[in-house]
Specification:
Radius of gyration: 38 Å
Largest sheet: 7 strands, mixed
Shape: elongated
Mean pLDDT: 77
Distance between the termini: 106 Å
Structural class: alpha/beta
Helix content: 25-40%
Strand order of the largest sheet: 16-18-17-19-20-21-22
Length: about 700
């Protein structure tokens, strides 16, 4: 029985013919058969005993669906081009098969199948090659097209003297160990993307094996930069499944080079008059106007910095934290460059495999935050240029005070400072042995001058980074360079503190007075003395007799130990022990130590404190701006500014909300606003003569 013309697009008519004519065997393309299976009436075709699928790739998922819907029928998968009388190989489909694809089987009687390499030599078992067909099924050539006939119908490679010809199909396949032929795809669908050979048929077969995918087509198209990108179109069994979920499922099944850049769900594949997929129409669909989408803007410091990197690399200003890197135009090589840049600027990154699994800013930030630990390096980490700036401004070199991978607030500087302000981040190296602030500053200064050989320079930093900035500024001025400003963000002043204050503070802590009490504001030393004494008495009054006795014992032991340790030392040195003279050390962690990153950081912290406690800053002959958090204690607590009087006569003192941590987190905007004001004010002041020591 022959159906009428165009019947492949009329499933109701096809089912009607099967039922009315009691058809027991029929041949159909998988596309037409799939449309028929979607019709409820198809279950009435119980008399069908044989179904032959031919003309298109039969996916394992669709094979299983046919056999499930038609348990009484045998399904065969056939292969063959028009040039060789349609069918040259067949395969009897297996129920509950574990094969990764549906084979096209073995050749029929009097048909020869060769799988050859470009040199017309047989390929080994399991290796892909081009199908060549010989035997009685091969036609004589194309009518009135001698050039094309000569190209596709070639002399028999193994019997050239016989005058026989074989047909070069352009189809790629391989033999499995049992001699069964597995179809891979078209030769013209086999292409190279950034130097890697990609089989579109392999990708489609993998997609079709996913339970959520009903049908798939993969095409390659050029993006705006002229580079090829893989686009996967999928018809889904479950519309609730997202492209991201499909990507995660593919991640464990495909090499990264084979991963589609974009996965586009479609309601149905466009078909040509023969019922085959019209790939040209799919390309048109991919270049249509984008669907309006809601952009979830970055919220955290890390998300905002990642978004800036993506915007620069993808050349697009509109990126949300849930947008796919690949859907926005990224590809595997660009992803490698992007991840390397993230690692350099933040200190941590994610693997390429993790990016393919979840290619969003939100996922990257979550992964980086969960594994954020300072990296170890065999040399001092490079200076990071955040912004080029312009208009002749002095560049700002900011020292975070901590190793790379921490203090991510520094990446926010471009957001708050003038667009014309050049900004550089100077990472503090990780060190594994005692060092001094002067030694570290000297090494970092070499990096700074390698980046910008001549001044003027602006310097800034927090915590230990502030002391490094001040020491680098002192060395620059001594070398004759201009330093308009050094900005210090809450670095404890190394002021001489009276022994009485230190003893009273320790006794109050032993009595149960909380540490936060000493962060309060006191108008004078007298107010601090009376307030602390009253608070100690209050704590003792509320305590039991046993607690009072225990507290007195601890106080006596501490006082005796303190007096013994410092007996005979000048009072002025008690709060600021002199640093021991020593030979400068390199500030890096050698690879040979064999320590984990966490162990290296623990070692680093110990020597960090060693350097800070032995540093006594010398008077600085220039302008210093200090941002001091309201929640931080002064030294002494009744006058936080007093500890800086001996350092400089040109001091810009500014108070910001928060404490040592929250001023860079919860109150970052207020802190950065004052930081910018200091820089702008220094830039507007006339140049002053700076004297070296």
């Amino acid at each position: 029985y022959l159906t009428r013309s165009g019947a492949q697009r009329d499933p109701e008519y096809l089912i009607q013919v099967l039922i009315e004519q009691n058809i027991t065997s029929f041949t159909s393309t998988p596309a037409a058969l799939q449309v028929m299976l979607d019709q409820p009436a198809f279950i009435q075709c119980k008399h069908v005993k044989m179904i032959a699928a031919i003309g298109e790739v039969l996916s394992p998922a669709f094979q299983d669906r046919i056999l499930s819907c038609m348990p009484q029928a045998q399904l065969t998968n056939g292969y063959g081009p028009t040039e060789a009388s349609i069918t040259v190989t067949t395969w009897k489909c297996e129920r509950q098969s574990t094969r990764r694809s549906v084979p096209i089987g073995r050749p029929q009687t009097n048909v020869e199948i060769y799988i050859l390499d470009p040199g017309l030599e047989p390929v080994p078992i399991g290796v892909a090659g081009e199908i060549h067909i010989g035997g009685v099924a091969v036609s004589g050539g194309y009518l009135n097209r001698p050039e094309l006939t000569a190209e596709r119908f070639i002399p028999h490679p193994f019997r050239p003297e016989s005058g026989e010809r074989v047909y070069r199909t352009g189809d790629i396949a391989r033999f499995d160990p049992d001699g069964v032929i597995e179809y891979i795809g078209r030769r013209d669908n086999q292409l190279k993307i950034r130097g890697v050979r990609v089989e579109l048929g392999e990708i489609e077969a993998t997609l079709d094996r996913l339970p959520a995918v009903k049908e798939s087509v993969v095409v390659a198209r050029d993006d705006a930069a002229g580079e090829k990108r893989l686009i996967a179109y999928v018809v889904l069994n479950d519309r609730a499944v997202t492209p991201l979920e499909i990507r995660r499922a593919l991640e464990s099944r495909l090499p990264s080079q084979f991963m589609p850049a974009t996965i586009i769900p479609v309601d149905a594949m466009p078909r040509n008059t023969n019922g085959k997929v019209d790939r040209g129409a799919l390309r048109d669909a991919s270049s249509s106007a984008p669907v309006p989408r809601a952009v979830n803007l970055p919220q955290t410091i890390l998300q905002r910095h990642l978004a800036r990197i993506w915007q620069e690399m993808l050349v697009t200003p509109d990126i949300g934290i849930n947008d796919s890197f690949f859907d926005m135009g990224g590809h595997s090589l660009l992803a490698v460059v992007m991840l390397q840049r993230v690692g350099e600027e933040i200190g941590n990154s994610v693997t390429l495999r993790a990016l393919y699994a979840e290619p969003t800013i939100e996922a990257m930030a979550r992964s980086i935050s969960g594994n954020l630990s300072p990296r170890s390096t065999a040399e001092t980490p490079p200076i990071l240029k955040l912004r080029e700036g312009g208009n002749g401004r002095a560049p700002l070199f900011y020292l975070n005070g901590h190793p790379p991978g921490t203090g991510l607030y520094v990446l926010e500087l471009p957001r708050y400072l003038s667009p014309e302000q050049p900004i550089y981040i100077v990472h503090t190296p990780i060190f594994d042995r005692p060092v001094t602030v002067e030694d570290i500053a000297t090494q970092l200064l070499e990096r700074i001058r390698a980046e910008v050989p001549t001044g003027p320079y602006m310097l800034g930093g927090n915590c230990l980074g502030a002391w490094l900035a001040l020491e680098i500024g002192r060395q620059l001025i001594a070398a004759g360079e201009r330093v308009p400003l050094v900005i210090i963000l809450h670095a404890a002043a190394r002021a001489h503190v009276h022994l009485g204050f230190r003893i009273l503070r320790r006794l109050s802590l032993l009595a149960g007075v909380p540490e936060e009490f000493h962060s309060g504001e006191f108008a004078s030393a007298g107010e601090y003395l009376t307030s602390t004494t009253a608070r100690i008495w209050e704590e003792l009054r509320r305590s039991t007799l046993g607690e009072r006795i225990d507290g007195c014992r601890k106080a006596a032991r501490w006082t005796g130990s303190y007096v013994r340790r410092h007996a005979g030392k000048p009072l002025a040195r008690l709060s600021n022990p002199g640093r021991a003279a020593q030979k400068p050390h390199a500030c890096t962690v050698p690879d040979s130590r064999g320590l984990s990153a966490e162990e290296q950081i623990e070692v680093h912290r110990g020597h960090w404190w060693w350097a800070w406690r032995r540093h006594e800053p010398r008077p600085y002959p220039g302008r210093v701006a200090i941002l001091w958090p309201t929640g931080a204690p002064g030294y002494p607590p009744w006058n936080a500014r007093a500890g800086w009087a001996h350092l400089t006569t040109d001091l810009d003192w500014r108070v910001v909300p928060g404490d040592h941590v929250s001023m860079m987190d919860k109150h970052l905007e207020e802190t950065m606003r004052e930081l910018n004001a200091c820089i702008e004010q220094a830039g507007q002041q006339p140049a002053r003569a700076l004297l070296s020591e």
